[in-house]
Amino acid sequence: MIDLYFWPTGNGKKISIMLEETGLKYRVLPVNINKGDQFKPEFLAISPNNKMPAIVDTDNGLAIFESGAILQYLAEKTGKLLPADTAGKYRVLQWVFWQVGGLGPMAGQAHHFLKYSPQKIEYAMHRFQQEVARLYQVLDTQLGKTEYIAGDYSIADIAAWPWVVRYDWQGQKLEDFPNVKRWFETVGARPAVQRGAAVGADLMAAAPPPTDEDKKRLFGLRDKDLKP
Fold first, then answer.
1. Can you state the angle between helices 155-164 and 191-198, rounded to 10 degrees?
2. What is the 3-state secondary structure (H, E, C) of 63-132?
3. Residues with Cβ < 8 Å from 124, sequence gap 6 or more?
4. CA distance 214 to 34
5. Interval 74-133: pLDDT, tens
6. d(CA 222, CA 79)
7. Which of 56, 84, 80, 58 lies closest to 70 in space, CA to CA?
8. Domain architecture of the chain: domains with CATH
9. Contact between residue 82 and residue 21 where contact means Cβ atoms under 8 Å apart
């Protein structure tokens, strides 16, 4: 059994999708990041960077944080979605690291400055929108050569797909990246992806949005930052 410490974000959904793809039994333990659950001592004992997702494998007591490491662990535990040969393994892992080091952080910044920031900072909006566009072009070029990111369907696709879901939040149009669009629709049609992406919808629907006090306490914002 896998205990999944989770909130329905792009990073969280990587792991719920992976668990659905592998067929491992799991239970969801919500970590409401808008209310500060990630700073509770019991969660910090599992995830010292106070970020979700994290897992505990109850078969052996192993706790793992960071989504890329979790994906690799679950793939190796089940023998699925990560090639066993050295060349194939690193062909996949390089794209997983591309996502966790590039697409995810840059898209996250685009989400913040284009959608959430109460102050519209033109430089930051342009900077992150353009960097995400560059990364989409990198992905589009790769997907012009292969059906999936690293050849066969793998954890590289599971890492990237939940972040492309919010392409509009990033100021992107999939029509500008036809190979990404084809891949996005193909991956999104997989039943396990649909099940994994739906995990936590009830949590989000039931959770009140963060208050201004939450934003100041959790994200270091000041009163003047909250003014449009």
1. 50
2. EEECHHHHHHHHHHHHCCCCCCCHHHHHHHHHHHHHHHHHHHHHHHHHHHHHHHCCCCCHHHHHHHHHHH
3. 109, 113, 117
4. 7
5. 999 999 999 999 999 999 999 999 999 999 999 999 999 998 888 889 999 999 999 999
6. 48
7. 56
8. 2-80 (3.40.30.10), 86-189 (1.20.1050.10)
9. no
